[in-house]
């Protein structure tokens, strides 16, 4: 690995967010007396995805994503709920989930011996910190950067400007961002002027307008970059 500064996305790069989310949603709906079937789940995913897209494109604040996604979902079913209260319950379940992507802990432990590791995530600060601690990853990173604490999100320039300014002796050519999202991690890295590594574990199709410097399907492939 020729790069000295490694910026890792968190969800679906180091932590298995999909598994964590599924378990947390099931517990949330069950505790509120609603059976979570595939139709309700798909409805939630559609609404949640659109809200996150709007947030990542700078159209709405993060608070709107978090405090309305459940109320909007249930409203479609003719049920009125307190979106903020549901979000608070969901955060409690989500914060306890720390399933790892295969090889994540081993790779981070090995790379941290000779490299400087940082987390760059669009997630909620308190939730991400807790999950990193529970997964045994937290102490392997020099700093944890979240969009909530910065006030900007990937892929926006403001996010990366803040990150670079808060990494002592930062150097563009020595820095690599690793993430699963072309639209936030890879696009953000390209716009910020650093090399990028797309973690394409699921074999997603490439996009002609967003080209990563490297593409891997297994985190252990980072050793050879």
From TrEMBL:
It comes from the Bacteria. InterPro entries: HAD-like_sf, HAD-SF_hydro_IA, HAD-SF_hydro_IA_YjjG/PynA, HAD_sf, PGP-like_dom2, Pyrimidine_5'-ntase_YjjG. Signal peptide: none annotated. Pfam families: Hydrolase (PF00702). GO terms for molecular function: 5'-nucleotidase activity. PANTHER family: PTHR47478, PYRIMIDINE 5'-NUCLEOTIDASE YJJG. This is Noncanonical pyrimidine nucleotidase, YjjG family protein. It comes from Anaerocolumna cellulosilytica. The lineage of its organism: Bacteria, Bacillati, Bacillota, Clostridia, Lachnospirales.
